[in-house]
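Project outcomes to date are best conveyed with an example. Our students and postdoctoral researchers have been running inverse folding experiments weekly, and each run begins with a structure described purely in tokens. The record below, which covers 648 residues, was selected by the lab manager from last quarter's runs and is presented without edits.
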């Protein structure tokens, strides 16, 4: 596998770095398609890098080979000399031309050897393009032949190798091809999908990639052929696409079309100079329409490249912010078929679950479909376990609308002292009051201070009526229930996150919850003077080292643990990050963003850390951090200060 390092993520989407002979390639990124003949390339690669920040390209080794003049120049000066560019260059193999024209004048061994000789940073196997209309027999034959060629290519290629994943519309063949590609490839290129892009068959495209995605190695860089339109970049990133290739910037320019994240606009429909980008500031769109054909084509190609580069940067920022699903939902309004494709992705939460982060900084709703995201699916699954009928202590849930400053006046127990199971209606469905601050509910409702306040005023008439119907008007309504709700919430959060192995002892030992003086939200869980758990804005209790010591004793062996190789144990115990190659095993139920117990091979606690990688990625990715340490054994827990909204 290639030298790929994951730096940041939002689910399957990854900010990463791939080392190449001509410098690192930052992902996700767009590889503009450049013609190997500089005379036919409208914008030189050096200008594209300088003006638009796109620093890697894809070009056709087959077209260069087919032209005697280009072939000789490429062999003499390399592909970088041919296109006059000194950064990373990926070469295609001619598979699409073979599909379109029925044949190419070169075989798989020869085209690979040519790519080697001209110095391609990433060479591509000459695969068999499987049409979406192919029957199972045709698709299977294409997959088998592609796999044979890929295995042979691996033996003949020392550098980075792109292996296409074929299989047409058949899930079993996509899975088989993904496994075969992962065994020998560095770049795993989902192919045979260009007709689906061109015909806006996004639900079928989603099915094809979803079928392959679980079988693509985490160490492989995922390339999706044909993702040239900026409105589709966020859609692809949701599926973990690292590399996009695009000739759309030039193809659409030749047809007098402007590319935008919101769709495509014919130039002849432009009447206002509504685009104020730097290029349109130089030559307004209304004037571009009057330029001679060649000049107009170049101007539009530049505009399309700028929009594409900006959208790719926007995708990367949304990954860093944890808002990629929101961006994809907004982009899906560009076309009904794209919206249908996004809904198809949400029909397969199992594909995202292993990489879905435990929480994000925020949860922004764009529409009713926002409540079908994988994060909601995971939360509802955990809520069902929390509400499981095996817990005989939980009574029938009653519903009450929450309002600012009203919770302190809602009794947690009935007149006999038995706990009541209050819940409140939310866009996610009825939620137990104790869990109202957990992600995704808490961040989604953050504007409403639905938390118990020490200085809570009287509840509204509506809330009073709802509560009094259940308890009777003779109930002592003037009592402040904050302390009782705090005890309830401490036990509920621990049970929600860890189960009764932790929640039960917490109740028995009378652990104390402390609330923020500013917001009233639960912030720490203590035992006497020791802070055991800290609670951020996602409502998830995260152990300090003292809390981790208690969890190691309370939880079964293996639960919540990442086992550190003996060579790295001393460094992790001193607070150093745990690198992927030093992970022995990890609890498969953990997720990116989870707080884990880092232990040595003998089970001794070394540290607490937050996962960057999912458990199934650890050890597979040979570079980069798997877990960032947040507390370790050589630093005693001190007093906890009031933390800002983004500090926990």
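After processing, the design step wrote out the following sequence:
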């Amino acid at each position: 596998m290639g030298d790929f390092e994951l730096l940041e993520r939002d689910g399957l989407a990854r900010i990463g770095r791939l080392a190449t002979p001509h410098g690192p390639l930052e992902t996700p990124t767009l590889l503009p398609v450049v013609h190997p003949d500089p005379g036919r390339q409208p914008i030189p690669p050096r200008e594209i890098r300088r003006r638009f920040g796109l620093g890697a390209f894809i070009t056709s080794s087959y077209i260069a080979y087919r032209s005697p003049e280009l072939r000789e120049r490429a062999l003499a000066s390399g592909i970088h000399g041919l296109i006059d560019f000194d950064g990373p260059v990926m070469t295609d193999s001619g598979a699409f031309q073979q599909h379109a024209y029925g044949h190419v004048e070169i075989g798989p061994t020869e085209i690979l050897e040519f790519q080697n000789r001209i110095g391609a940073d990433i060479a591509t196997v000459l695969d068999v393009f499987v049409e979406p209309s192919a029957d199972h027999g045709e698709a299977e034959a294409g997959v088998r032949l592609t796999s044979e060629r890929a295995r042979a290519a691996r033996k003949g290629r020392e550098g980075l190798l792109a292996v296409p994943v074929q299989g047409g519309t058949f899930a079993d063949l996509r899975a088989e091809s993904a496994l075969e590609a992962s065994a020998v490839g560095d770049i795993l290129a989902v192919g045979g999908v260009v007709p689906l892009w061109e015909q806006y068959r996004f639900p079928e495209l989603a099915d094809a990639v979803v079928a392959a995605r679980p079988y693509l190695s985490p160490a492989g860089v995922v390339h999706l052929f044909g993702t040239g339109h900026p409105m589709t970049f966020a859609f692809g990133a949701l599926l973990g696409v690292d590399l996009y290739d695009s000739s759309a910037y030039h193809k659409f320019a030749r047809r007098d079309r402007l590319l935008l994240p919101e769709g495509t606009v014919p130039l002849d429909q432009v009447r206002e100079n509504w685009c104020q980008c730097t290029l349109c500031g130089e030559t307004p769109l209304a004037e571009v329409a009057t330029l001679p054909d060649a000049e107009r084509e170049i101007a539009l190609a530049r505009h399309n490249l700028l929009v594409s580069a900006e959208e790719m940067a926007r995708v990367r920022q949304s990954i860093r912010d944890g808002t990629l699903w929101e961006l994809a939902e907004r982009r899906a309004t560009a076309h009904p078929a794209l919206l249908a494709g996004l809904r198809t992705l949400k029909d397969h939460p199992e594909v995202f679950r292993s990489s879905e982060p435990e929480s994000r900084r925020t949860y922004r709703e764009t529409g009713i479909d926002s409540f079908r995201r994988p994060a909601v699916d995971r939360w509802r699954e955990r809520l069902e376990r929390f509400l499981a009928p095996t817990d005989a202590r939980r009574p029938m849930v009653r519903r009450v609308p929450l309002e600012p400053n009203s919770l302190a006046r809602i009794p947690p127990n009935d007149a006999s002292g038995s706990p009541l199971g209050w819940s409140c209606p939310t866009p996610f469905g009825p939620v137990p009051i104790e869990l109202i601050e957990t992600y995704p509910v808490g961040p989604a409702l953050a504007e409403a201070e639905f938390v118990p306040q020490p200085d809570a005023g009287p509840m509204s008439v509506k809330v009073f009526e709802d509560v009094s119907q259940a308890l009777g008007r003779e109930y002592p309504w003037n009592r402040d229930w904050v302390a009782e709700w705090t005890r309830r919430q401490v036990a509920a959060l621990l049970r929600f996150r860890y189960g009764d192995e932790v929640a039960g002892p917490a109740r028995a030992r009378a652990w104390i919850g402390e609330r923020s003086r500013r917001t009233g939200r639960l912030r720490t869980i203590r035992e006497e003077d020791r802070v055991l758990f800290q609670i951020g804005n996602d409502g998830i209790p995260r152990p300090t080292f003292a809390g981790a010591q208690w969890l190691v004793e309370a939880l079964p062996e293996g639960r919540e643990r990442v086992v550190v190789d003996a060579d790295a144990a001393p460094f992790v115990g001193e607070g150093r990050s745990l690198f992927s190659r030093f992970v022995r095993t990890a609890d498969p139920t953990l997720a990116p963003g989870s707080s884990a117990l880092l232990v040595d091979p003998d089970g001794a606690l070394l540290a607490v850390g937050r996962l960057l990688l999912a458990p199934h990625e650890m050890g597979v990715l040979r570079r980069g951090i798997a877990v960032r340490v947040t507390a370790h054994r050589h630093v005693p827990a001190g007093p906890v200060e009031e933390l800002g909204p983004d500090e926990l």
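The mean pLDDT is 88. The two ends are 36 Å apart (CA to CA). The training component of this project remains on track.
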